[in-house]
Amino acid sequence: MARLKLGVLISGRGSNLQALIDACAAPGFPASVALVLSNRADAAGLERAGAAGIATAVVSHRDHAGKQAFEEAMSAALEAAGVELVCLAGFMRLLSPWFVERWRDRLINIHPSLLPAFPGLDTHARALEAGVRFHGCTVHLVRQDMDAGPILVQAAVPVRPDDTEESLADRVLEQEHRCYPLAVRLLAEGRARVVGERVLLDADMTVPEPLLNPVP
Ligand code: GRF
């Protein structure tokens, strides 16, 4: 079985990268990490890649004259590694329309909210502030608007009355680590296809029951 080659872009701790590395280590998983690319040499995620024997590259925006040159260097590194699907995993630079179009439908992101609610930063604090009963995370294809694009996988996390930003972030992060490998698997196995601005699944894989929070 040919495995889909992933390029994972990080800027920091890399726990989602670790989830992808762990998933790829399982026999039969239909993808492998070909390259971990960071825009920061001090990203902790680079050590995770090194420990797993995965090739790494640092492409710093500071070493390039402008955004286009920076993104061309990233794109060249990804292509040289044979990357077929780019996974943004805590990559903290906004990508230009050029990069987004260059990798259109081969570029996915994980975001810590149930999009389209709470794009941008501080999602957990904003969810608590809004008093939503469910929060969560989303893996989606990247489009030019920030934190927008066809949705692949979401996990809903109930918000508890005693939640703090940290406790909620921890529970959402656990689900992020389940969602990202699932999204990669669906794409790698051809079970998710982009049609217009939606992702269609080739079978009904919907959870069986609606969820209520609080419990009636
Ligand atoms: C995650 O919360 C992810 O949803 C967001 O950035 C964070 C990255 O965390 N895009 P990590 O580096 O994967 O641990």
Automatic annotation (TrEMBL):
Q: Which Pfam families match?
A: Formyl_trans_N
Q: What is its EC number?
A: 2.1.2.2
Q: Name one GO molecular function term.
A: phosphoribosylglycinamide formyltransferase activity
Membrane spanning residue stretches? none
Describe which pathway this protein belongs to, using the record's wording: Purine metabolism; IMP biosynthesis via de novo pathway; N(2)-formyl-N(1)-(5-phospho-D-ribosyl)glycinamide from N(1)-(5-phospho-D-ribosyl)glycinamide (10-formyl THF route): step 1/1
Q: Where is this site: Raises pKa of active site His?
A: 147
Keyword vocabulary terms for this entry = Purine biosynthesis, Transferase
Domain called Formyl transferase N-terminal: residue spans: 5-184
Reactions the enzyme catalyzes: N(1)-(5-phospho-beta-D-ribosyl)glycinamide + (6R)-10-formyltetrahydrofolate = N(2)-formyl-N(1)-(5-phospho-beta-D-ribosyl)glycinamide + (6S)-5,6,7,8-tetrahydrofolate + H(+)
Which residues hold N(1)-(5-phospho-beta-D-ribosyl)glycinamide? 14-16
Task: Quote the catalytic residue positions.
Answer: 111 (proton donor)
Q: Does the keyword tRNA-binding apply?
A: no
Summarize where (6R)-10-formyltetrahydrofolate binds, as residue positions: 67, 92-95, 109
> Which InterPro entries is this protein grouped with?
Formyl_transf_N (IPR002376), Formyl_transf_N_sf (IPR036477), GART (IPR004607)
Q: Which SUPFAM superfamilies match?
A: Formyltransferase
Functional summary from the UniProt entry = Catalyzes the transfer of a formyl group from 10-formyltetrahydrofolate to 5-phospho-ribosyl-glycinamide (GAR), producing 5-phospho-ribosyl-N-formylglycinamide (FGAR) and tetrahydrofolate.
**UniProt similarity note:** Belongs to the GART family.
Q: Which PANTHER family match?
A: PHOSPHORIBOSYLGLYCINAMIDE FORMYLTRANSFERASE
The name this protein carries in UniProt is: Phosphoribosylglycinamide formyltransferase
- What is the species of this protein? Rhodocista pekingensis
Q: Which gene encodes it?
A: purN
